[in-house]
Amino acid sequence: MNALRRWARLALGMRSFVRTGQMGDGRESACADHVETHAAPGDIDAALSAIDGFAVREAVLVNVGVEKGALLDAAVRRADPALALELGTYCGYSALRIARAAPSARVLSVEFSAANAEVARRIWTHAGVADRVTCVVGTLGDGGRTLDSLAGEHGVGPGSVDLLFIDHDNSAYLSDLLSIEQRGWLHRGSLVVADNVRIPGAPEYRRYMREHEGTRWHTVEHKTHVEYQSLLPDLVLESEYLVGS
Ligand SMILES: C[S@@+](CC[C@H](N)C(=O)[O-])C[C@H]1O[C@@H](n2cnc3c(N)ncnc32)[C@H](O)[C@@H]1O
């Protein structure tokens, strides 16, 4: 399928995506089928290449992608996490990158769509990381239920989150970060990486980081591009938490 048609199909799917977390044409479960048939079991690199190949040749996916994924990998290596928390699982691609960059980390990923959780679990199982990468179905804006589940059932506690990757609903980036800060789950030196800060955009989040530069946070703004193309600019923010011990 040519590139123009693939991007037109993505634009058509965006209404469904905002409502349900999926594009509405079955591409997410087709991606899991593709990984299962094209990547050797237990091979994380092969699973990631299969997902990238599917996104480039079959149907565009809203994964962090290759260029921004490399920024995420570098931040993960800097944080060297025992526990990484992600907001926004989709097909499980970025969680897989985090698991690859931190081979002994536990990764918890929060996703509101149960259908996406199922796709991601299939891919993680195939790639051999399902014992340490977990999807929690929910959203941090649900009045505390998901936060309580992360604490009670998944062992997230004071100072335990070494790396946080924010890649879900741009309008919830700041409120969800503040909920995590209020629970005391970060420690001095925790790294928070936020995707899509320019497109679709998270201006409140960016302003918050600028206002607290050098006091609560130290942020580096990485200029990059929207996933799977090289024309549209995007921003990834990498912020180090300066509070606590
Ligand atoms: C851009 S995709 C995540 C991509 C993924 N991080 C990757 O790079 O492979 C955003 C995901 O966040 C989910 N989502 C949207 N709003 C959410 C919320 N408030 N809480 C949890 N998940 C949410 C969507 O269903 C979608 O799967």
Short account of what is shown:
The protein is α/β, with parallel strands linked by helices and 245 residues long.
Commentary on this structure:
The chain is α/β, with parallel strands linked by helices and 245 residues long. The chain contains ten helices and seven strands. It has a seven-stranded mixed sheet with strand order 3-2-1-4-5-7-6, sandwiched between helices. The mean pLDDT is 96. The structure holds S-adenosylmethionine (SAM). S-adenosylmethionine (SAM) binds next to helix 5 and strand 2. The site of S-adenosylmethionine has 22 residues, from helix 5 and strand 2.
What order do the helices and strands come in, and which of them pair?
Layout lengths: L2 H18 L6 H12 L5 H14 L7 H15 L3 E5 L5 H9 L4 E6 L2 H14 L5 E5 L7 H8 L8 E6 L6 H10 L3 E9 L2 H5 L1 H9 L5 E9 L7 E9 L4
Parallel strand pairs: 1-2, 1-4, 2-3, 4-5
Antiparallel strand pairs: 5-7, 6-7
Helix pairs in contact: 2-3, 2-6, 3-5, 4-5
The structure holds S-adenosylmethionine (SAM).
Keywords: Methyltransferase, S-adenosyl-L-methionine, Transferase
Enzyme class: transferase
Pfam families: Methyltransf_3
The CATH topology is what? Rossmann fold
Beta-strand content bin: 15-25%
Q: What integer is the average pLDDT?
A: 96
Give the topology string: H per helix, E per strand: HHHHEHEHEHEHEHHEE
Distance between the termini: 53 Å
Number of strands: 7
- Separate helix tally: 10
Which word captures the global form?
Answer: globular
Instruction: State the helicity in percent bands.
Output: 40-55%
Integer count of domains? 1
Strand order of the largest sheet: 3-2-1-4-5-7-6
Bound molecules: S-adenosylmethionine
Give the CATH level 1 class.
Alpha Beta
Going by helix content, strand content and strand pairing, the class is alpha/beta
CATH superfamily: Vaccinia Virus protein VP39
Task: Return Rg in Å.
Answer: 17 Å
* pLDDT < 50 runs, ≥5 residues: none
Major sheet characteristics: 7 strands, mixed
